[in-house]
Amino acid sequence: MSLDRPHKNSSIARARAVKADTFSIIANALHKVQARQIVDFGCGYGEMAARLAADGFDVTGVDPSAESIEQARKSHQHLSFIEGTAEQPPLEVGSFDAAYFLNSLHHVPPADMQQAVMAAATIVRPGGLVLVIEPLAAGSFFRAMRPVEDESEIRALAAHAVDMLIGDGTLKLVDLQRWDRESKFQSLEDFTDYLLRVDPQRSESIHKNSVQLAKAWRENVTIRENSASLSQPLVCWILTRR
């Protein structure tokens, strides 16, 4: 089930197109409900958490990677980062105003995806929000990285997990937005370094498929202002507990 052509029952087909960037999507949703205490599930090195903290939010980052948490703590010493999983978050029930997954739900084991979203909803206070942002299996960024890792199926499974929670009435869909994220790179090496930061286990695949990767890079990049640009469509489900 590819998200390039969403299944007829997928909520993605009903997403409204917006012209915005990922930070604005998250920040605007949080400001709208006057949220302040936020959890970033799959925070990585803490870049988005730091941007939101600079905008006045109290952000706690959670990530299963000890290496990522260590780096996040070094880079953003004023923020709180905790090693743990979204499925079993080391956080108190009902202790936050909102939580979000930024391109991280599809990294959760498929069998645990619904549990991860529900756990996020549990640690959020009544009336709070859970945002799930996921990349679609479409766009020049997706096509360029496909020789390294084809995430078509896993991204579709993440979307399906969210749709199941909406469909059975567990969570209420407040809004669903779709936009394009533009990423700029100085070179193919810069692009592969980014892919490795997201998932170090891609190293072997990058080496093994270097010829195909270089070809996909050439066929999909657009040169703008002396840098190579790749576009990735994203969707954001804004959810709340019923």
UniProtKB/TrEMBL annotation:
Superkingdom of the organism of origin: Bacteria
GO annotation (BP), single: methylation
Keywords for this protein: Methyltransferase, Transferase
Single GO term (MF): methyltransferase activity
Gene3D superfamilies the UniProt entry points to: Vaccinia Virus protein VP39 (3.40.50.150)
Matches recorded under Pfam families: Methyltransf_25
Protein name: UbiE/COQ5 methyltransferase family protein
Lineage: Bacteria, Pseudomonadati, Pseudomonadota, Alphaproteobacteria, Hyphomicrobiales
